[in-house]
From TrEMBL:
Residues 645-661, 846-860 have a biased composition (Polar residues). This is Uncharacterized protein. Residues 639-661, 846-954 are annotated as: Disordered. It comes from the Bacteria. Keywords: Membrane, Transmembrane, Transmembrane helix. Residues 904-916, 925-954 have a biased composition (Pro residues). It comes from Coleofasciculus chthonoplastes PCC 7420.
């Protein structure tokens, strides 16, 4: 059910303003502000927003609806609440708040209590001040009780307060004023000041003056004797008294004078306009017995009396629930406030007047114009939907109704404009005019009753003008003429000749790589008159390069053209193939030979030059090395690797060897367009002088990417892209690679070729070392000096062995003789027959000039005089005086017992084992005898010195 506040012109209602909302209790103020921001909420939605239970919110909403702050409306059977712009007549307190919130002032103030306030000694008077900053800036505000208010300024606990409010903010200040017990009863004036000199100097200070009435202690006893009153019938917000607009409601007011004095009572309704109610007091009698009209109810002490209150809502009062306040005034105690409320429900009146007015009702081409005038004569808001349609069920007219939905407040008036546009199709207009009937249906969206929901209108559509009949006659004459022309056209006109309408190639671009013939399109009129079509292609020089091809059309479309041609009014042939597919320029000529004996001139037409481009030639877009400079990778020596792999004690203690990275040599990248046209790739490498350092390699691409290159090459964006292609070139030096592309089709005059920038492999220094240098199988590192006993006039050859590993371009020398030797070898070194000392040096020099050497000293001595004891071939270490090993002279030639030298057992264990020991742990064998079992003969007089003897390598 709709609930709307009363009409302000009838019941004294007024517009809701911010003062009215701020004067509400906290919960009601939150509800009103929420509904004013977002309308149409239900009770559960409002309760959820306020965070309160629905029962409590329902009570608050009932009070707000009664006071006119909120409207209740049922939408699809669900009650919803909307904002209300009008409310019932406010109290003086609201009027005071309205004055405080005068528009244009940056600061507004609400004081509670705003007027005189009674209080007894010993109580605390609370003065609440609400300040709202409605200016355009933040402000610092001072609120205080002026010093001229002597007693209240002294009694107040904190008479001075300060606030800082931003734009649009509000805050409340409460002054606590305890009233002393010894305060003298009486009226105390006080002055409240609100000042903001720093931010609003022109609009402040704001002053509020009021009075505080201090009552004596006997006031409590007097209140027991205060008069009382009650209302009949008893009403509440749930059970209001029902009254029809314009009909009176009689209310009985029972007054009881409980004081000990005669008193006169007067009744008023401050919330209602004077035209709403009438108060009837009982008639009185004078001393002479004359009846007189009383303006009050006079009661003796303890006596009761009745006052009759007649409430008559005006006829135009809005239908809702009202709760006016009834106040009883006492003549003896004018400051006594006796209040009660009566709840009234004004019943709705469903009176809606609708009238359809014709503005333009007779038309020929334009639209008919009508007005639907609606007037709400009831006391509730009506939501009306309007629909216009034809009453005859045809679609001759278009109906435009603006608006289609109207809301009418009580006493409201609205107009809906209707345009009726007849059909614009000329053949639907009648010759003699027509009456078009239509209806406007109205519907109450709230399902309120309507007296009539259907209103009929009429539009007269005028007939056609007289000159249109003349057009009909002319049309008939023209039709006869057209029939005559048609007969001539079909039977008497000359037979037309075929004409070429269009002749052009089917495509704009042709390429020999597509392996597709040139196709032609043509259109020829009068295909039934075609005898033969001839097509041939010639070069720009006039040489026939295609065809000629002739098609016979005497029996219709030939079989070879059925897939390409259609014949109706025009012979349309699309994508007819020719035999032209070789690269070159073609000009095609179409010749049409018509049927009949009198052929006349032949119809011919040529195309523009059609070009077949040759096969695309692959181009090298990019060819380069992955890096301009490489570092040589030293490959490990296999023998050294085998030695490292042997299970020796030193290796068990050494860390594991790291695997060497794979050396792929120089890596190349290239990108070549049109990979499908590549037949062969030729790759060759040269040094800067042009000498081939990398033999030419031919890579066959006729079957696609070859298997060895599939990991490095792929087709990307119609190009062959090869990345990190290994060449295997590892030797230091400078290389320039050249790549040549051989295409699939034909051999161009110059094959696509591209060279890389010079690519350099920088040599890396290789470590080298003397692995072995022995004398008679004994390592010189452990015995750098040897003592050899020689025989007179005999030269003993000493076997020297050496081995050098690592390095590159090493120079190995055995000094002083024989000089340069291989990396590894064995040579018998002859000793001088004279006692002497010789130093033999093995010197190794690499390409960078670095040297490593190892030396051994051999001393030759004469044997001691013969003794009867047998001499051993070789003294074990440690037997000589100086601790150096010695060699005994070899036995004389032919002595079979001395064919082999034997080493006597060592008298005592060696203090440190020799690095080179035999598997049995004995000392190394002595110097062997030369081949044949006899020592070499001493050199003759003409023999060269030992240093000049040629080396003997094994």
């Amino acid at each position: 059910m709709n609930s709307n506040p009363s009409n302000p012109s009838a019941n004294g209602g007024k517009t809701i303003n911010i003062a009215d909302i701020l004067a509400l209790p906290e919960r009601q103020r939150q509800i009103v502000l929420f509904i004013r921001r977002e309308e149409g909420h239900t009770l559960p939605e409002i309760a959820d927003h306020i965070n309160e239970n629905e029962q409590a919110i329902a009570i608050e909403l009932d009070e707000l609806v009664q006071e006119g702050f909120v409207r209740e409306m049922e939408v699809e059977g669900i009650p919803r609440y909307y904002r209300s712009e009008m409310r019932r007549q406010g109290s003086p307190f609201s009027e005071m708040i309205q004055q405080a919130l005068t528009p244009g002032k940056p600061l507004s103030m609400i004081v509670n209590p705003s007027g005189d306030a009674p209080i007894t000694p010993g109580s605390t008077f609370e003065l609440c001040v609400t300040i709202t900053n409605e200016g355009n800036q933040s402000a610092l505000i001072e609120i205080y009780i002026d010093e001229t208010s002597q007693f209240l300024h002294q009694w107040c606990i904190s008479p001075y307060e300060r606030l800082a409010l931003g734009q649009g903010q509000s805050s409340e200040v409460v002054f606590q004023i305890p009233i002393p017990l010894d305060a003298t009863p009486g009226t105390y004036n006080y002055l409240l000041m609100v000042d903001a000199q720093q931010h609003y100097p022109e609009d402040t200070p704001i002053q509020h003056q009021a009075r505080l009435q201090v009552l004596p202690f006997v006031q409590e006893a007097i209140r027991v004797n205060d008069p009382t009153f009650s209302l009949l019938p008893i009403t509440s917000s749930a059970v209001p008294a029902v009254v029809q607009p314009g009909e009176p409601l009689e209310v009985q007011v029972l007054v009881h004078n409980r004081s000990d004095r005669v008193d006169q009572f007067r009744l008023t309704c401050p919330d209602l306009a004077p035209i709403w109610y009438r108060v009837i007091y009982p008639e009185g009698y004078t001393d002479t017995g004359v009846v007189r009209v009383m303006d009050g109810l006079e009661l003796n002490p303890g006596e009761k009396g009745l006052i009759q209150l007649i409430i008559t809502p005006p006829v135009d009062t809005w239908a809702t629930i009202y709760s006016p306040t009834v106040r009883l005034y006492s003549l003896n105690n004018p400051d006594l406030v006796l209040l009660d409320a009566i709840y009234l429900q004004v019943m709705p009146i469903y009176l809606l007047t609708v009238e359809l007015v014709t503005l333009v009702g007779k038309v020929s081409h334009q639209s008919g114009v009508f007005e639907l005038q609606l007037y709400n004569g009831g006391n509730i808001t009506r939501d009306i939907a309007l629909i216009a349609k034809s009453a005859d069920g045809d679609d001759l007219c278009t109906y435009t109704l603006i608006p289609t939905q109207v809301r009418l407040a009580p006493g409201g008036y609205a107009i809906a404009n209707l345009e009726v546009q007849p059909s614009q199709k000329w053949w639907r207009r009648p010759f003699y005019g027509r009456v078009l009937n239509f209806v406007i249906e109205i519907e109450d969206l709230q399902q309120f009753p309507l007296l009539n929901n259907r209103f009929q209108g009429t539009l007269i559509w005028e007939g056609r003008p007289w000159w249109q009949f003349l057009l009909v006659i002319l049309g008939i004459v023209g039709l006869i003429g057209a029939l005559i022309f048609l007969l001539w056209f079909l039977f008497f006109r000359p037979k037309p000749r075929p004409e070429i309408v269009e002749f052009a190639p089917a495509g704009k671009n042709y390429s020999a790589a597509d392996q597709e013939n040139v196709r032609l399109n043509w259109e020829i009129t009068n295909p039934k008159r075609i005898q033969t079509i001839k097509i041939q292609g010639v070069s720009p020089d006039g040489v026939v390069t295609s065809g000629p091809i002739a098609y016979n059309f005497s029996q219709g479309i030939p079989n070879e053209l059925e897939r390409f041609c259609t014949a109706d009014e025009i012979l349309n042939c699309q994508n007819v193939p020719t035999d032209a597919r070789e690269p070159g320029d073609y000009v095609f000529e179409l010749t049409v030979i018509p049927q009949g004996k009198k052929r006349g001139e032949l119809e011919e037409l040529q195309t523009n030059t059609v070009k077949i481009t040759p096969f695309p030639i692959p181009e090298i877009e990019e060819f380069a090395s992955t890096q301009p400079v490489y570092q040589e990778v030293i490959q490990p020596n296999p023998e050294a690797a085998d030695q490292e792999a042997s299970p020796t004690a030193n290796q068990n203690n050494s860390p594991e060897a790291q695997p060497q990275p794979e050396n792929l040599g120089i890596l190349l990248n290239w990108t070549i367009s049109h990979p499908e046209q590549i037949r062969l790739l030729k790759l060759v490498g040269r040094n800067p002088e042009g000498i081939v350092t990398f033999p030419m390699q031919s890579i066959d691409f006729s079957q696609g990417i070859p298997q060895p290159l599939q990991e490095s090459c792929e087709i990307q964006n119609e190009a062959l892209v090869c990345m990190n292609l290994a060449t295997g070139v590892r030797q230091p030096g400078t290389y320039i690679f050249e790549l040549t592309v051989v295409p699939q089709q034909g051999e161009p005059e110059e094959l696509p070729t591209q060279k890389t920038d010079p690519i350099k492999i920088e040599a890396q220094p290789v470590p080298f070392d003397i692995v072995e240098f022995t004398v008679n199988g004994i390592e010189t590192l452990t015995r750098p000096k040897f003592v050899v006993q020689i025989s007179e006039d005999e030269s003993i050859p000493v076997p020297l062995s050496w081995k050098v590993e690592g390095g590159r371009e090493l120079k190995v020398e055995l000094l002083p003789a024989p000089g340069t030797v291989p990396r590894e070898g064995t040579v018998p070194y002859p000793l001088s027959p004279e006692p002497s000392t010789e130093t033999i040096t093995l010197q190794v020099t690499n390409e960078a000039g670095e040297q490593k050497s190892r030396s051994v000293t051999i001393e030759t001595i004469q044997p001691p005089p013969p003794e009867p004891v047998e001499m051993t071939p070789l003294s074990p270490p440690g037997d000589t005086a100086n601790g150096l090993p010695t060699f005994d002279p070899p036995p004389p030639p032919g002595d079979a017992s001395a064919s082999q030298m034997q080493t006597p057992p060592s008298p005592s264990p060696s203090p440190s084992p020799s690095p080179r020991t035999t598997p049995s742990g004995t000392e190394p064998t002595p110097l062997p005898l030369p081949p044949g079992g006899s020592p070499p003969l001493p050199p003759g007089a003409d023999s060269p010195p030992p240093a000049e003897l040629p080396p003997k390598f094994r």
